[in-house]
């Protein structure tokens, strides 16, 4: 146990900071960084209450540190598939990509969907199966109503399923991978 961890003022400061950062993706990183800064700043004077008070005063209000940490726009903070831009690329590949690069675009989109942590298992299954189910239903209708061309049923069903899945996925995406429970 470090000397600073024993000091009640430091413990209180770090606990407050930890609480204010609740839910932030880099909560532990920020708290550990502040803890290390305190240790470095105190140096051999770690047991001097006046020095501890001065170091904490120099750091400032924990709420200000938490606010700065929450508004940090570090692009490396979240992996690509856990950010809104990753979700948009996934949805574009599942819809437009399926028609621009037939089959391959959709398969790559499915890969991104299943590797992302921004959606629940139910969301992923729904988005995967919707185009397939609507395509099969459209083909069934095409065979029931013979004047209806089968290729239109194939494309129409897949397009409707893909667009529906895209809207569904964008509505259900949770940035940072904290997907809600289905």
What would the keywords be for this entry?
182 residues; mainly alpha; 2 domains; 9 helices; 71% helix; 0% strand
Summarize the structure.
It contains 9 helices and no strands. By secondary structure, it is mainly α. The radius of gyration is 26 Å and the shape is rod-shaped.
Commentary on this structure:
The chain has 182 residues and is mostly helical. It has 2 domains: 3-70, no CATH class; 80-177. It has 9 helices and no strands. The model has no long low-confidence stretch (mean pLDDT 81).
Which helices and strands occur, and which strands form pairs?
Elements lengths: L2 H4 L1 H13 L6 H16 L6 H11 L2 H9 L13 H17 L3 H12 L5 H24 L5 H23 L10
Strand content: under 5%
**Rg for CA atoms:** 26 Å
User: Which class best fits the helix and strand makeup?
Assistant: mainly alpha
Number of domains: 2
- The separation of the N and C termini measures 42 Å
In round numbers, the mean pLDDT is 81
Number of helices: 9
Instruction: Catalogue the unreliable spans.
Output: none
Helix content: over 70%
**SSE order, as H and E?**
HHHHHHHHH
The geometry reads as rod-shaped
User: How many β-strand stretches?
Assistant: 0
- Which sheet architecture does the biggest sheet show? none
